[in-house]
Design brief:
Layout (H helix, E strand, L loop, with lengths): L2 E10 L8 E8 L2 E6 L6 E6 L4 E4 L1 E3 L22 E6 L14 H12 L3 H7 L7 H10 L5 E4 L1 E2 H9 L12 H16 L4 E5 L19 H15 L4 E5 L6 H14 L2 E5 L10 H10 L6 E5 L5 E5 L10 H8 L3 H9 L1 H13 L10 E3 L16 H8 L3 H11 L6 E6 L3 H8 L4 E2 L17 H11 L6 H8 L1 H7 L15 E4 L5 E2 L3 E6 L3 E5 L2 E2 L1 E6 L2 E5 L2 E2 L15
Parallel strand pairs: 1-4, 1-5, 6-7, 7-8, 9-10, 10-11, 11-12, 12-13, 13-17
Antiparallel strand pairs: 1-2, 2-3, 5-18, 14-16, 15-16, 18-23, 19-22, 20-21, 23-24, 24-25
Helix pairs in contact: 1-2, 4-5, 5-6, 6-7, 12-13, 15-16, 16-17
């Protein structure tokens, strides 16, 4: 029989962790209809995958595309990197449920936490919902390119139930307010949310400087929420946390364990430190013990050192009056021209040095270079302090020299997370860790990790051997899909959804992040493209071809999950 599409001649890495094998894949009606030798079988369209690998589409468990979908249904840059399903609503920051009077507050909260202007959010979304289910209806109507899974957020729900005091340290929900929180969680899960998310991270603040709603919620509240998730959606419903592991380590771990015992799939953002093994052995014991007898706790983590990009795009790091004036200039070219003026440069450099320059951060800033592709310095050979010492210069002088020489194109990566490379790689290898924290839609003008899958497969798997290829693909497809409870997604199997990547593995890599102004009100952000994705298919339709969009937007909002 003839098929709609055949992907021929590829090496299939099916997402299960099994060894790669040579096979053809036929697609019909958005599903994989046959896998095997299809020589001589006709198809309306054929994709030649000779010398390429064929994988499932990747499942990104941490994005903040909740607002961006409104004006960018192609969901960039996630879709440039093989992602076919994105989980939104992380860290408790969502736009539903939301009464009409609270819309502006949630937009301003997102601006404060995730660097997207509130005016862009207000004008870029239709705001035609009140409940979480209605928000998902809205996302569906926008015809996204990728599949979307949503979680309801603590900030929206707690503010809806408690008002302004929801941010106050020491203030807990009374019985009526707690019941309202529980009711909203149940309503949201019944309306299609995969679960619930919360932030306990002490860096997430609302515009007035207080921490986001939910940060200070006590165990009575978090347990009630976990019970509501399971009651409304079944065992395996999501309870996602951006935790505070610095000041409330034992409290947070207890919250994870309580959720797992009650039946939640607990998902938290984790990582390692520079001392000793960075906590790897401790987490190995904790995760191993808490994934027995049907309990489920999974950590996600950064795949590369990350935290912020500095340069002349949006952040210069140096914040003296002269530098603030420089960054007010409208374009990067204008800023470079100002730097080239001797008097302006002298003022900028002098002020910066008098203010202490880069201080200890100079050892954490790594230049990404100006070649065709970024240099992530995984051998840890270059940082601003080392380069300055070798040149016999102050770090401020070297920084300015390189900004001018690159015409403002070079970015400096702050190794704030994941900088203890061997510890981080050992953590990533733990059985219950998913190396995917793309964060697309968050911190959009500050940095981007949306190329995590590309970096994982290229730099870490192909070049460094941190994983075998089958294991790397499994972590970000089959395992991620299992964590979410996705039905018939995450692996290449006959009858399953045709969410597929065709990848030129030997040439796969990230491109340099580019600063563009394509958000409402001329808002700026960093976008990173890729090389090596010959084709990314969602529901059997090619959405990315040779790194560019085809115009197809076949994604769907997923509301039904495998639950116990």
């Amino acid at each position: 029989m003839a098929h709609s599409l055949i992907i021929s001649g590829g090496t299939v890495v099916d997402g299960s962790g099994a060894a790669a094998k040579r096979a053809d894949i036929a697609v019909d009606d958005g599903r994989i209809s046959r896998i095997g030798n299809l020589d001589g079988v006709e198809a309306a369209t054929t994709i030649d995958a000779t010398a390429k690998i064929v994988t499932p589409g990747f499942v990104d468990l941490h994005t903040h595309l909740d607002a961006q979908i409104g004006w960018d249904p192609e969901m960039r840059p996630s879709s440039y990197h093989g992602v076919t399903t994105a989980l939104i609503g992380n860290c408790g920051v969502t736009f539903a449920p939301c009464s009409k009077d609270n819309r502006r507050y949630l937009a301003e909260l997102m601006e404060a936490v995730e660097d997207i202007a509130a005016n862009a959010i207000m004008d870029g979304l239709p705001w035609n919902w009140t409940t979480f289910g209605e928000y998902l209806d809205c996302v569906e109507s926008l015809n996204p390119a990728l599949n979307v899974v949503g979680m309801c957020g603590h900030s929206a729900i707690r503010f809806e139930a408690m008002g302004d005091k929801s941010c106050d340290e020491g203030v807990q929900a009374d019985e009526r307010e707690l019941q309202r929180i529980v009711d909203l969680v149940k309503e949201s899960v019944e309306g299609g949310a995969a679960g619930f998310s919360t932030s306990r991270f002490l860096g997430h603040r609302v515009p007035d400087g207080r921490l986001t709603p939910g940060t200070w919620a006590d165990p009575r509240e978090t347990r009630a929420i976990q019970e509501a998730v399971v009651e409304a959606g079944g065992r395996g419903g999501m309870f996602q946390v951006a935790p505070d592991m610095r000041t409330r380590y034992e409290v947070e771990k207890q919250m994870f364990e309580t959720g797992a015992e009650l039946g939640c799939q607990v998902l938290f953002s984790g990582g390692t430190g520079p001392e000793g093994d960075g906590g790897v052995s401790r987490w190995e014991e904790f995760l191993g013990r808490n994934n027995e007898n049907g309990r489920r706790i999974t950590s996600i983590c950064h795949t590369r050192p990350s935290g912020s990009f500095f340069g002349l795009a949006q952040q210069a790091f140096l914040r003296t009056p002269a530098w603030r004036e420089l960054m007010k200039l409208p374009t990067i070219a204008d800023r470079v021209a100002a730097l080239k003026d001797p008097a302006t440069r002298e003022k900028l450099v002098t002020e910066a040095k008098e203010a202490g320059g880069f201080g200890r951060v100079a050892r954490m800033l790594h230049p990404m270079g100006t070649g065709e592709f970024p240099d992530f310095d995984l051998d840890n050979n270059n940082n601003l302090q080392k380069l300055a010492d070798e040149a016999g210069k102050d770090p401020v002088d070297l920084y300015v020299d390189r900004l001018i020489a690159s015409e403002g194109r070079e970015l400096w990566n702050l190794w704030a997370f994941g900088g203890a490379l061997q510890n981080q790689w050992n953590y990533m290898r733990l059985p219950h860790v998913v190396p995917m924290l793309g964060d697309a839609g968050a911190h959009v003008g500050q940095f981007t990790d949306a190329d995590s899958p590309t970096f994982l497969l290229g730099e870490l798997t192909r070049d460094r051997g941190v994983y075998t290829l089958p294991e790397a693909v499994h972590r970000i497809s089959g395992k991620s899909a299992e964590v979410l409870g996705l039905k018939e997604r995450g692996e290449l199997r006959e009858g399953w959804h045709a969410d597929i990547n065709v990848i030129d593995y030997e040439n796969l890599c990230s491109r340099h992040p580019e600063y563009v102004r394509d958000f409402p009100h001329n808002g700026g952000r960093l976008v990173v493209k890729s090389r090596g994705y010959d084709a990314t298919l969602v529901a059997g339709q090619v959405v990315i071809e040779n790194g560019e969009y085809t115009g197809n937007r076949p994604g769907t909002v997923i509301r039904e999950f495998i639950r116990g």
